Fold this protein.
Amino acid sequence: MSLNIELDRDNKTYRPGEKITCKVEITFEEPVKVRCIAVRFHGFAATEWSKIKLGRGKNRIKTYAAFEEYFRTYNDLTGERGGPEIELPAGRNVYPVEFTLPLCLPSSFQGLHGGVHYTIKAKIQADGDFNKSLKEEFHIESPLDLNLYPNTKEQQRVEEITYFCCWCCRSGPLTLVTTVPRTGYLPGEKINFLIECDNTSRINVLSIKVFLREIQIYRSTTPRINTKTHEELVAEVEFDEVIKRNDTKTYKGELSIPHEKVKNLKNCTLIDVDYEIYAVAEVNKLHMDLENKLPITLGNIAFTTTPSDVIVSGQKHKTKSGSIPFIDSTE
């Protein structure tokens, strides 16, 4: 006997509100008595992670978890669950199945401490040991329209300032500014950025690093409400140049966004996936690095009008010579 589920799309990817059409194919070598053949459509999110709690004499492992269900629908293709037996003929039996997805669903996702999954399960129910089932996973790509977030089309700038204390004296400030032409992007695009570092402190800046990071936040409900954060590096650019006292440097570069499906989890209460540009001015180990962050929105529906990728510079920090060194990371 063979059991197969064939979806109407090769990539097995759908959007909320669309209709899934599939076929359940069962081949019997001889006539078989079954009670029913049923199909279940299931959508859910689940999280789980563990913490080690130190105790006297022994350590305890505490597990945090949560479960959220979006739909669970059954469809009897032949017979009834728990009903009388019926005989199916030998050979190939094909059962068409349709299911309309709900409108508000999060995208499929699998992370370190949880995920969002959508499955089709076909099951043959019979007496004895003849029960057999097959599960097939399909994917949801939930739309995220950048036009619904008009602020992401505007240039954004973030500035952080710190002071270093050396014995009883406080030095001048170290300033780090990150500017991007917009904060809304599609997969496969490049994020142009401008970094300005003005060092009037007594400490040398050893290098400037710029990252595109994915921030995953997981939530639990059992045994209590808790959160777990996991960060993943998406792209990185480094400017390996010492910025000495009373020196100012300006760098431009770009971060490449991978060609992958957008993880729109706005309809999931257990998992958040966010993106940010994280810039850091690294100094010696005796002092804290200076960092700043800019949130980035990744969508899968483009702006109706083409956004500008030109950065309009504001007031610039001037060196003693009145000029600003401009270093292109692509050179």
